[in-house]
Amino acid sequence: MNAPSLSARLAVCSWSLQPASPQELIAAVRATGLNRVQLDLDPLRESPDVWASTQALLEEAGIEVVSGMFRTVGEDYTTMETIRVTGGVAPDATWEPNKANIAATVPIAKQLGMRLVTFHAGFLPHDETDPAFVTLAQRLRDIADMFAAHGIGVGLETGQETAPALRDLLKILDRPTLSVNFDPANMVLYDKGDPIDALRTLGPWIGQVHIKDGIRTKVPGEWGEEVVVGSGDVDWTAFFAALHEVGFTGDLCVEREAGTTRVADIAAARELVEAIQ
């Protein structure tokens, strides 16, 4: 059986569109030319008075929810160092509120019929005997088990570690419901290796892909620059060829986290993907 076309697998990340309500989300999704979405679950948890009707409105609009996403408490993306210290579920100071938020997110994802929810795990210590590594690994197992109890998988977003480090972590965690949300731009923005090589390394674990582009920094330790898909360092023709090579047939969610013309930028990404296939 042939996999669906690339364009049929496209979705848009709802947070990229910065909607203040489900009605705004629907209008923005339609403006991109797409009808599938990866849904930010934080607004549904934080502002149920505004977002309680999301599921019904999306269904009525014919927009499919392909997966979910949540953020963690205290994330500071000001610099690479601040996100290393504050990101994900690694920091002890924010673990309890994060755990509570995740517990509240699980039933929302279940109600929406989700099969996958993604997030940034946080900085991974290099030494497996480091107590911080052991603690983070256990937290990730706990999160995977919380969602798995309701038939939901968890995708760890690529970012602050190399592909081999993330692969080794997944082997250690030993949870079949854990996968990778592969973002090629993050490999560039965090300067963590070639995205095509990383894709091949993580191929067996990839559960979802983000379509995002970036330009690698020329100053080690500083951010690269996120740019419109097709204008950065990701070789998209080679990228999709490698996706086919590793047998990935899942969803491709366009993400845009910078700029003031996001709807147009996302539409441009859609057009690029449609032209490649």
Automatic annotation (TrEMBL):
UniProt KW Lyase keyword: yes
Swiss-Prot/TrEMBL keywords: Lyase
Any single Pfam family the record assigns to this protein: AP_endonuc_2
Entry-linked InterPro entries: IolE/XylAMocC-like (IPR050312), Xyl_isomerase-like_sf (IPR036237), Xyl_isomerase-like_TIM-brl (IPR013022)
Gene Ontology MF term list: 3-dehydroshikimate dehydratase activity
Enzyme class: lyase
The enzyme's E.C. designation: 4.2.1.118
Superkingdom assignment: Bacteria
Record has Nucleotide-binding as a keyword: no
Record domain Xylose isomerase-like TIM barrel: where: 27-269
Gene3D superfamilies registered for this protein in UniProt: Divalent-metal-dependent TIM barrel enzymes
PANTHER family with a match to the protein in the record: HYDROXYPYRUVATE ISOMERASE
Name of the protein described by the UniProt record: 3-dehydroshikimate dehydratase
Natural source organism: Luteitalea pratensis
Upper taxonomic lineage: Bacteria, Pseudomonadati, Acidobacteriota, Vicinamibacteria, Vicinamibacterales
